[in-house]
Amino acid sequence: MDETRSEPPKIKVVDRRKFSAEGEPLDTPEIHAETPETAAPPGDASRKVEKPPAGPVPEAPKADGPGQPDARFLELLTMLATQAELLLVGTEEMPARPEEAQRVIDYLGVLEEKTAGNLSADEAQILSTVLYQLRTAYLQRT
């Protein structure tokens, strides 16, 4: 069999950054270069590559309503608080590690410091309460 090879397909590289290197906002994405496809092995031509759907990526819900805490913020607090609590208490498979729990509690403290003035009253109260409870639990277990 006689196989004829044509030029490999070209890939367009598109810069989708929203800011320039100097930090200035960009109006439109620019095409920087076109390069031949070299990553695919020659015998892998039958494999099809699916493109991601066009359009904006849907965001997680920001808040349940006016004056309500941001759902993503609450998820973050829940994740970190649960991790700290598990490290404090331990499980059958994992012994308690209070030093690592203290580090997670410190992360929550940094979060409280860095977000001061940027949280709603409810979010600030929830974060403060979570920190108080975790710090109290840490002191009781050490």
Account of the protein in words:
This protein has a two-stranded antiparallel sheet. The longest helix has 21 residues. It is extended and about 75 Å long. Helix 1 packs antiparallel against helix 2, helix 1 runs parallel beside helix 3 and helix 2 runs antiparallel to helix 3. It is mainly alpha-helical and 142 residues long. It has three helices and two strands.
Characteristic key phrases:
mainly alpha, 40% helix, two-stranded antiparallel sheet, 3 helices, extended, 142 residues, 9% strand
What is this structure's SSE topology?
Elements: E1 10-15, E2 30-36, H1 71-89, H2 98-114, H3 121-141
Brief write-up:
The protein has 142 residues and is mostly helical. It contains 3 helices and 2 strands, in the order ββααα.
Q: What is the percentage of strand-forming residues?
A: 5-15%
Report the C-alpha radius of gyration, rounded: 25 Å
Which regions have little confidence, pLDDT < 50, spanning 5+ residues? 29-40
| Helix/strand/pairing category | mainly alpha
The overall average pLDDT, rounded, is 77
Shape: extended
* Helix percentage: 40-55%
Largest sheet features: 2 strands, antiparallel
Distance between the termini: 76 Å
Q: Please provide the count of β strands.
A: 2
Instruction: Trace the largest sheet across and list its strands.
Output: 1-2
**How many H/I helical runs?**
3
